[in-house]
Amino acid sequence: MKSINQIFLAIALIVCTIAFQSCNCKDCKIEKELQEIMERNKAVGLAVVAVKDGQIIYNKSLGYKDLDAKTPLGDSDIFRIASISKSFTATAIMQMVEQGKINLNDPVSKYIGFPVVNPNFPEDTITVQMLLSHSSSLNDTTGYFSLNVINPDSTKTWKNAYNNYKPGSLYEYCNLGYNTLGTILERVSGERFDKYIVNHILNPIGVYGGYEVGSLDSTKFVKIYEYNRADSSYTWSPDAYAPRKKEIENYVFGYTTPIFSPTGGMKISALDLAKVMIMHMNYGTYGQTQIISKESAELMQSPLIVTDAEDNGWYGFAIRTTNDLIDGHTMIGHTGGAYGVFTSMFWDKERKFGVIAMTNGCNERRDHHFMSIHRECAQALYNNIINPQK
């Protein structure tokens, strides 16, 4: 039997769809299509943004921020965006490179305070660039929320965190690598990771967000729900916004950085994330504010290593290249998924347009190596808003 929330959500989506059927204006047409996409994917809430020629030309928030309270999702509400967070960490690392505080070809061991060496290939250096491109030979099998898993002084099983291939030779997506990068940023900048990102990326662009839950307005948090296939119900995931007060009270600067999750802990609205995307589309500059140099931005967005995905995509520094999101277009950006949230930030490689899509819960259908809801929303925004057919 379907839960009351599931029934209520289905009714709400049907009512909204009927309401737009009698209207043929452009905004009503795209909103009707987005409602249909939500219904197909059983989405709790959905936030989308379209960018064209460096400007936000459309944004919409639909569905619920809080399913139990039936609170509508608003434009200023913030999601935990999961792995899109990596792009903030990579951007900050490139700032350190530009300041001469980090060399991409230096050993990770130089910056982290203990040896980071693959025991199967002890003569091969694991570099900062390898962490950025997921080619370090590190893996997540022993966990990634503590550096203890790779610190030989903290655990006897540290060798298990390494794969049996040469560093730099193959791609394997690795959250541990990005939590390590966040720690490196903290150690070389002298500023706590979460505060650094706010002070040097978010504030200069004029957007609201951050990694530390306690520093943010909790009334803006979008509740995240995991979908239960057995009965088509939703389960709230409170851990997505765990404040980690005790861990912060006992914080060890330059070591316990992973508690902020540089790999996936950014909280930001879809509308503000679109402004960050515009910065990347403009090669590191937003308006008159330069966050990173054009050279750094180009390196981040370069296809440096082929991924292990079936789509034969490429990966740079927290930016991937794909032909599978919008038909006929090569797109670059990143996705995120954790606790039930699914996020997507991609722009056309020629920088003519970009799309953002976030949902706080859906049935997790997949299509062409993407969440179906992301692919459908991107195509709908392209067809109706970015390049409308006459």
Give structural notes.
A nine-stranded antiparallel beta sheet has the order 3-2-1-16-15-14-13-12-11, sandwiched between helices. A three-stranded antiparallel beta sheet has the order 4-8-5. Helix 1 (about 5-20) runs antiparallel to helix 2. The chain is about 30% helix and about 20% strand. The chain is globular and about 60 Å long. The protein has eleven helices and 18 strands. The mean pLDDT is about 95. The longest helix is centred in the first third of the chain and has 18 residues, at about 5-20. A hairpin with a 2-residue loop joins strand 17 and strand 18 (about 370). About 50% of the residues are buried. It has about 400 residues and is α+β, with helices and mostly antiparallel strands.
